[in-house]
Design goal:
By secondary structure, the protein is of the alpha/beta class. It is built from 5 helices and 4 strands, in the order αβαβαβααβ. Strand 1, helix 2 and strand 2 (65-71) form a beta-alpha-beta unit. The chain starts with a helix and ends in a 6-residue tail after the last strand.
Length: 130
């Protein structure tokens, strides 16, 4: 987040904090759908509150920031929102994966790079785990 704040401050940029949540499908047959919906709603509410607090912290640091929580497939939704909002740069957290993982699966980072119409900056997880 620090590198995003430095870049935004240097270029007087607006920061959009975009969190994409997957579409919820039918739950397991052995879980009451009402209970499942309530649990999902509670979790989404907490994520939304966290995102709003994070945007407020960014604004306190002197950077214009807006939080946006949206639903959909992560990469496709990020690409769509970046076009809709006329984003100049996407900065995304990055978790290192094993060579085997990369060989077997097309990572979200690779999909974002291949589909995104604007530059993309991947910031490694400072904890070094993944």
């Amino acid at each position: 987040m620090e590198c995003v704040l430095e870049l935004a401050g240097a270029f007087s940029s607006k920061v959009w904090l975009v969190h994409v949540v997957p579409r919820s499908g039918p739950g397991p047959f052995n879980i009451d759908s009402t209970v499942l919906r309530e649990e999902v709603a509670t979790e989404l509410h907490h994520e939304h509150e966290f995102l709003q607090r994070l945007a407020q912290c960014v604004r306190v640091r002197g950077v214009d920031a807006t939080a946006l929580m949206t639903e959909g497939a992560t990469v496709d939704t990020l690409v769509k929102e970046s076009q809709r909002l006329a984003i100049d740069l996407i900065a995304s957290g990055y978790h290192k994966k094993s060579v085997l993982y990369a060989a077997l699966l097309n990572s979200p980072e690779e999909r974002l790079l291949s589909k995104c119409p604007c530059p993309t900056l991947f910031v490694p997880d400072p904890r070094g785990d993944g």
